[in-house]
Hints:
It comes from Saliterribacillus persicus. This is 6-phospho-beta-glucosidase. The active site is at residue 379. Belongs to the glycosyl hydrolase 1 family. By secondary structure, the protein is of the alpha/beta class. The chain has a single domain (13-474), classed as Glycosidases (TIM Barrel, Alpha-Beta Barrel). It is 38% helix and 14% strand. The protein is built from 15 helices and 14 strands. It has helices spanning 20-23, 45-51, 74-88, 99-102, 113-128, 144-150, 158-172, 193-197, 207-232, 254-277, 282-290, 301-307, 357-371, 397-415, 464-474, and strands spanning 13-17, 92-96, 132-138, 179-183, 237-243, 247-249, 312-316, 321-323, 332-335, 338-341, 375-379, 420-426, 446-448, 460-462. Strands 1-2-3-4-5-7-11-12 form an eight-stranded parallel barrel, surrounded by four helices. Strands 6-8 form a two-stranded parallel sheet. Strand 9 (332-335) and strand 10 (338-341) form a beta hairpin. The mean pLDDT is 95.
Amino acid sequence: MINIGKKFPNDFLWGGATAANQIEGGFDEGNKGLNIADVLPGGKERLKFLKEPGFKFEINKSKYNYPNHQAIDFYHRYKEDIKLFAEMGFKVFRMSIAWSRIFPNGTELEPNEEGLAFYDRVFDELHKHGIEPVVTISHYEMPLNLVENYGGWKSRKVVPLFERYASTVISRYKKKVKYWMTFNEINSALHFPIMSMGFSVQEGENKYQSVFQAFHHQFVASSLAVKACREIIPEAKIGCMLLHAPVYSYDSNPENVLYALQEERIFNYFCGDVQVRGEYPAYARRFLKEHFVDLNIEDGDSELIKEYTVDYIGLSYYMSQTQKKDKEGHDVASGNLLEGVKNPFLEASDWGWEIDPIGLRIGLNRLYDRYQVPLFVVENGLGAYDKVDDDGSINDDYRIEYLRSHIEAMAEAYDDGVDLMGYTSWGCIDLVSASTGEMSKRYGFIYVDKHDDGSGTLDRKKKKSFYWFQKVIKSNGEKL
């Protein structure tokens, strides 16, 4: 362990992060309806469905494997997993509620009691071990009925359906959950709208018209969720959640610097500007005009968005981006479904995601300079191939080094004056990768015996990083 001589706030929220569709399984149990994740196949075929038009929302088990159907079976094993989280010393556990577990088709007038009762049991188990849940209301699991029959978030009709869902879970769990987030990685839809918005862009369709109209519907829905939370649980905190990847210019050529600025504004800041500042930013007018976007903004929308802004920003951080206006002749760096040019100063993970801990410090400073609200790093981790040694041990020193360097960068950002709420490492237990549907892309402190072909016992095993993170939490980040 390394003593870095820095401490985080005494109330700093250490823990781990997951999503319902990537850990729960039980996809057809408890009256749950199908959601978008249930029809995404596993393996690298998933990438083409996330990015290419014409994806058919169907289950074809003769052709594809669907790892999310069982995932790691948290639905049945949550007590075992929560006990392990408690052993590590988690103060919080970031998770999501599956919308289609509560409203199977998204359109019901009354919620599914079996689904509500499941999360009651999970929250009770967490509190039994002194762990506070941090709940994302919508995390890549939109009910399939709303995808097929409404066109996902392109339809304004989805807004009141989400409001009913959000109000239902906030009311039900008002005594059990005090940290909420509305939409996971809301800005990710600029690159892959299928998971967060429930549609793929078709041939000939103006991508920007569809995506930005859907953004507007989500902004309205997010503000309605904030309104419900303020009225039902005034003492709770509710935030937005952004995929943050700081953008660097490839060099000091002013054209590339300007290009990087424009990329940074639209990808990293647009959604935050609306949800935190409460209005569309000035630069967006030109962007929307140049991309032939004509937003339908109904009476009262702007006032609602202005009044009900979020309390904090949750963010995921995995990598930075390096951008050049003319990419011809340059190697492409592709990770987390984002693309830029390769940064010659950075190494990359097994999946090509560039590793840049200083980028986390840069990103946190940029966000706090801009918004002056608390920041919560709710996703950060390394997807890697893990090997079980002959003696059963899993020596994932590469993960420890990755996390250590990012926590050090976070500590520096705190010393810079950034208001940090907490840190929840992504995939604290191995889970199904969202981007590739693989189990072999492992993030966890806890190994799950499940493989890409669906085989495995689902047994849990502690990795070396389990014990390392246990000491990090116990020392409040002072010993790394």
